[in-house]
Amino acid sequence: MNFTNAKDVISYLYSLPKLHPKGDLSYVKRALDVLDNPQNKVKTIHVTGTNGKGSTSYYISNLLRKAGQKTGLFVSPYVFEFNERIQLNGKNISNSDLVKVANQVEKAITKIKRNDPDFSLVTFEYETVMAFTFFAEQKCDYAVIEVGIGGEHDKTNVITPEVSVITTVGLDHEKIIGPTIQDIAHEKSGIIKSHRPVVGGNIPKTVLPIIEKKAAQEHAPFYLLGRNFIVSDDKRVVYKVKNKTLSFISHPKVESYDIAVAVQVFSLLHLPLSNALIEQAVNQTKIPGRYQLLKENPMIILDGAHNIQAVKNLLEFVHKQKKIRDGQVRVLITMMKDKDLEQVFSLFDKADRLLLTTISYPRVAKKADFPVAVQKKYPYEANWKKAFDELKDASEDNDILLVTGSFYLVSEILNMGEANASSGY
């Protein structure tokens, strides 16, 4: 097969299976091996976590770029376009480079198939191999690699990073890497490598020993938020470590954790950058679909929060804003049907006005997929655009309109053409 345009590449990727019958790394390793192991030709930062891994990856990437490093970034999901998944120096991979690198991967697969006709890559493996190949070809100084799901068995776990990062540990994807939070912690700690430092964010005390034990086994120095470095988030986000203090513009509490982790990771790389430029790099970071402010009056916030902890953190921020603005909270929400829907919906205040919706995506909940109690409590509008317009029209200037539950819904709203979307507070 020979790709001639980016649209065909993306369609092909989505046509591939999502999982192998056995979830090991042998497939991705074989493909990388034929391509001369591009993942070993670039210094990497490996980022996992139930929440915050995407934001943290963006912050680290921006810090590296500010320090003059040619920087690759591999993240998921995308918000505006597929090419966001693979970035170079803050710019999405071009369509021509996407086609070029896909053809290189396809050539490697064809070579393997000569001896093993049944060989194939699943979607995320293919994307991972493309990213590593592209970063090596571009001779990146660093590549920030966000895991897909988990850690130990994630298809990106074929690298020996300069620093491993575990932002948070909570309940999500329990059917794949759970079912318990302890199981999830074990899985995420699988990215810790021998004698390579690991930075931990807001890790629950119940699972901290699991990560500490893995770090000790690997002789990996462990730097923990709240122990080795601290952050406060009153009027500004303030990061402190030993004799160093940095101050950043105000962010939601959970984002301040991500900032602190990113700055700690960057400090371990010993790249020269003044405090003023570190602060500038963080303050200038734009993260699509995460605490993204679309409009001020009414305040329209887009956030792809899709698990219990992420929604809890988001609502803490939204309800704080509600008190300041003395307004009403309206929420447009859809979720994947395999999420813990009952628990997520229990997090909303009685006064919050929710409107359920859906989008055209295989795993997204339709009306019948929501718990019966949720169906009875909140109205449902199948047309997400109509639902968004309805809530927007009903909102006063001091109200808050939150769009959440899925990055796919956030993506639809943003791609609808709402202008001047900005990220930051």
Automatic annotation (TrEMBL):
Any single GO CC term annotated in Swiss-Prot or TrEMBL for this entry: cytoplasm
Keyword Glycoprotein: no
Enzyme class per UniProt: ligase
Domain Mur ligase C-terminal: from-to ranges: 289-407
Claim: Metal-binding is one of the keywords in the record: yes
Catalytic activity: (6S)-5,6,7,8-tetrahydrofolyl-(gamma-L-Glu)(n) + L-glutamate + ATP = (6S)-5,6,7,8-tetrahydrofolyl-(gamma-L-Glu)(n+1) + ADP + phosphate + H(+)
Pfam families cross-referenced by the UniProt entry: Mur_ligase_C, Mur_ligase_M
Keywords on record: ATP-binding, Ligase, Magnesium, Metal-binding, Nucleotide-binding
Domain Mur ligase central: 47-231
Enzyme Commission numbers on file: 6.3.2.17
GO MF annotations in UniProt: ATP binding; dihydrofolate synthase activity; metal ion binding; tetrahydrofolylpolyglutamate synthase activity
Classification via SUPFAM superfamilies: MurD-like peptide ligases, catalytic domain, MurD-like peptide ligases, peptide-binding domain
UniProt family annotation: Belongs to the folylpolyglutamate synthase family.
NCBIfam families: folC
Protein name per the record: tetrahydrofolate synthase
Lineage start: Bacteria, Bacillati, Bacillota, Bacilli, Lactobacillales
